[in-house]
Design a protein that fits this description.
Layout (H helix, E strand, L loop, with lengths): L4 E7 L9 E2 L2 H13 L2 E7 H7 L3 H6 L8 E5 L6 H14 L4 E5 L1 H5 L13 E3 L4 H12 L7 E3 L25 H4 L2 E4 L2 E2 L19 E2 L2 H15 L5 E4 L8 H14 L5 E5 L7 H9 L2 E8 L3 H7 L5 H18 L3 E7 L6 H15 L7 E7 L7 H4 L1 H8 L2 E2 L10 H4 L3 E2 L6 H22 L7 H14 L2 H17 L3 H10 L1 H21 L7 H8 L20 E2 L7 E2 L2 H11 L6 E5 L5 H10 L4 E6 L2 H11 L5 E4 L17 E4 L8 H6 L5 E8 L2 E9 L5 E8 L17 H5 L10
Parallel strand pairs: 1-3, 1-4, 2-8, 4-5, 5-6, 6-7, 8-11, 11-12, 12-13, 13-14, 14-15, 20-21, 20-23, 21-22, 23-24
Antiparallel strand pairs: 9-10, 16-17, 18-19, 24-25, 25-26
Helix pairs in contact: 1-6, 8-9, 9-10, 10-12, 13-17, 17-18, 19-20, 19-21, 21-22, 21-23, 22-24
Length: 741
């Protein structure tokens, strides 16, 4: 005898294209279909909202009555969600060993077999649309059977009107907080996209024919969502892969939408450039719609590689015509371009940028805005299926072609050298040089004055923020870190020295910190040390995986020992200000680590001065010399506590800075340093370490001025023993899985 089946549909809180949208309409429709059977209890949980509500994942998996579920179906919407969803499934399996775990979404559709391997916590995977396969699983469970490592689908719905109307009450749990956590609502009106853009993973769902709800049914879906949510002040996004491919349907729908006068701020949708004409623009304007176009490039040659249109001779001209008519009809629109698509070269980027400048920076203004994305390799896309072709034809290099398994998807999905003329660094730098100035000017040319103008202005601002130093630095850090993880640290260090864009971005970030550094070091904002901190490239003196941290006012560990660091910027500022370093001075840097402090000192003393750096660790000395030798700084491996190991002339230098904690000024130093020598060092005063300025007097006394309490690494009396890294250590990658409590 069949029984009622308890089903939990989980949305992981996607960070991709659907991030920030309320509605998860694909799960609502799945839940609606299951609920309509009459023998299924269905719940939907949106983990993006649940996290903000403070709900613990075990509570969600247990259900409100703590009895758990028979089936937990997890939407692995994109490849970015793969590892988090696998972790969620593993926790569910440990908590409820008998639950049936199902994966569905774009990524499982593209790569179904790993989900049904013996190592996977999942029992079944759905390829393509989920209504029929999930109903099959419910039938099995209701009959007392358990799916065992099954791949179900594709089983596409040919006529969408055969599905019941979406039951939005499945999201009643979130209705009162939706506006607080979502930037727009979302609904689906159609499925499929028959076009074959090379980068797109839509074909992973197998069925690509365009199918829509009937016009009246589509309008009713929107009305029903409005009755549930009250769409006043909302933007409503039609999340279809391709809106309105059929002209007759499109125009009838837009006319009906205008008549219904649903009080949203704006409807937002994605449509192709080559589907829209002047009459469409008039109807879009009357129906209060904004348009998103996947333009992808402004270069005809690259558009051909992307397989964007069968009519490339007028595709870009058509976009310009649409832009002009959209301004006349006051229809807001956005165009997305992809930088670094396989086959991209500096020449294609130059031509694309020239076109985009013409498209957006029009003398009479525009109602459009530009969004820019780096190319990302998606499984199931034509490029993924034909990687070898792109490698042979263009010299494309896909550094981590299975990046979704590596725990660093934000960077690794983009780590592609587009061609033998353009590597990842070149693409990133050229993208910034060519397109950021256009992004910066778009707002001044944006003349749309209709409803939801703030919505589009925020989009313009967000795009510019994505090009800011704060947004660019994490990708630089990941680039160098992965070279380190893959055993190419020396190469990464060489590249880092020559990376002009990194130097510019890092300096910009440091310049933003100077005021706070001055406050922490109790210095005036025009003190010379602040200028040195701005100019000296701190990112060259830290481990390759700490590039982003180098632009923060924090100490950075140089190894795993805890005995060697690059100190916080304000620590150098306070110490060197206490030492009163001027142009022409001779300074001894004792405990110099990777040489950052010595580089700052060289900037302060100038060509007429002298800097000698002493470090006990030969490995750090070798690293420091790469940067310090070109600056004319002498850097040697020596024991700081034994002046007899120091290089000739070091004891004659009259200013000494110390980078590690001491109990007192060593007697050995006092015996060899001339009267009048100034030593700034962290010394114990009672049980607390303080920065102390000590002047060695002619009488042998110490004239000491005690400054603020500090933290420094302890004294080392011998060089560390080298530890050979294992192969596993050298290849260890970062784990970025979420901590699910």
């Amino acid at each position: 005898m069949s029984r009622r089946v308890r089903v939990l549909l989980l949305w992981p809180g996607c960070e991709g294209a659907a991030a920030g949208n309320f509605g998860v309409p694909q799960l609502v429709l799945l839940g609606t279909v299951l609920r309509a059977r009459g023998d299924v209890d269905v719940e939907i949980r949106d983990l993006a909202i649940e996290r903000r509500l403070g709900t613990r994942l075990p509570e969600i998996l247990d259900g409100d009555d703590r009895r758990g579920y028979d089936i937990i179906a997890i939407s692995v919407y994109s490849s970015f969600d793969h590892l988090p969803c696998e972790a969620i499934a593993q926790l569910a399996r440990e908590r409820w060993p008998d639950v049936v775990l199902v994966a569905g979404g774009y990524h499982p559709s593209a790569r179904p077999l790993p989900y049904v391997s013996e190592q996977s916590p999942f029992d079944a995977v759905v390829v393509g649309e989920g209504e029929r396969p999930l109903s099959t699983i419910v039938d099995a469970v209701a009959g007392g059977q358990r799916p065992r490592k099954q791949v179900l689908g594709p089983e596409a719905i040919e006529h969408l009107d055969t599905l019941p109307p979406s039951d939005w009450s499945l999201l009643a749990r979130y209705r009162d907080v939706a506006r607080r956590y979502a930037s727009q609502a979302q609904v689906y009106l159609s499925r499929g996209c028959p076009f074959d853009c090379a980068f797109c993973m839509e074909r992973a769902k197998r069925e690509v024919s365009w199918r829509s709800l009937s016009v009246e049914r589509a309008l009713d879906e929107i009305d029903n969502l409005h009755q549930f949510l009250d769409l006043r002040s909302w933007t409503l996004y039609f999340g279809d892969a391709l809106f309105g491919m059929n002209k007759r349907w499109r125009r009838a729908f837009l006319e009906g939408l205008a008549r219904r006068n649903i009080p949203v701020d704006k409807f937002w949708l994605l449509i192709r450039v080559d589907l829209v004409d002047d009459e469409d623009l008039r109807l879009f304007g009357a129906a209060n719609c904004g348009l998103g176009f996947g333009l992808e490039s402004g270069d005809p040659g690259l558009l051909s590689i992307i397989r964007k249109s069968g009519r490339l001779d007028d595709y870009l001209d058509r976009m310009e015509h649409i832009a002009e008519r959209a301004r006349e009809h006051q229809v807001p629109w956005g165009a997305n371009v992809i930088c670094g698509h396989p086959g991209e070269t500096p020449a294609t980027m130059e031509r694309s940028a020239a076109y985009l400048r013409k498209l957006f920076l029009r003398p009479r203004g525009t109602t459009g805005f530009l969004s820019v994305d780096p190319f990302r390799l998606y499984p199931g896309s034509p490029i993924d299926a034909e990687r070898g072709v792109y490698e042979q034809r263009f010299g494309t290099r896909f550094h981590r072609p299975h990046w979704w398994d590596d725990g660093d998807p934000e960077f690794l999905s983009e780590w592609v050298d587009p061609s033998d003329e353009l590597d990842w660094i070149g693409r990133e730098s050229l993208q910034h040089r060519l397109l950021t100035p256009i992004l910066a000017e778009v707002e001044d040319h944006f003349v749309y004055r209709g409803s939801a103008r703030d919505y589009f202005s925020r989009a313009i601002g967000d795009q510019l923020a994505y090009a800011s130093p704060a947004a660019r630095l994490p990708a630089f850090e990941r680039y160098y870190a992965w070279h380190g993880y893959l055993g190419r640290r020396a190469r990464a260090q060489r590249q880092r020295r020559e990376h002009v864009a990194l130097a510019e971005v890092a300096r910009d970030r440091r310049s933003q910190l100077l005021e706070s550094v001055a406050q922490l070091a109790a210095l005036p904002t025009d003190h010379p040390i602040l200028r040195a901190i701005e100019l000296v490239p701190r990112e060259r003196f830290v481990p390759v995986e700490s590039v982003e941290d180098s632009t923060r006012d924090i100490p950075i560990a140089l190894d795993d020992s805890g005995l060697a660091t690059v100190s916080a910027m304000h620590a150098y500022a306070a110490s060197f200000a206490a030492l009163d370093v001027h142009a022409g001075d001779g300074v001894l840097d004792v405990g110099s680590g990777s040489g950052y402090g010595a580089a700052l000192l060289r900037e302060l003393v100038g060509e007429a001065g002298q800097v000698v750096a002493i470090e006990i660790d030969p490995a750090l000395v070798a690293r420091a010399r790469v940067e310090l030798d070109p600056l004319g700084v002498e850097c040697v491996a020596a024991n700081a506590l034994h002046p007899d190991t120091w290089p000739p002339g070091a004891t004659a230098l009259r200013k000494v800075t110390v980078g590690f904690a001491l109990e007192v000024i060593p007697i050995a130093w006092r015996e060899v340093m001339a009267p009048g020598t100034v030593v700034v060092a962290p010394l114990l005063r009672g049980d607390v370490l303080h920065l102390c300025r000590t002047v060695l007097t002619a009488s042998g006394e110490l004239d000491q001025t005690w400054l603020g309490a500090v933290r420094y690494v302890p004294t080392r009396t011998e060089a560390p023993k080298p530890v050979a890294a294992t192969r596993a250590d050298a290849r260890r990658a970062p784990a970025h899985l979420p901590v699910l409590r």
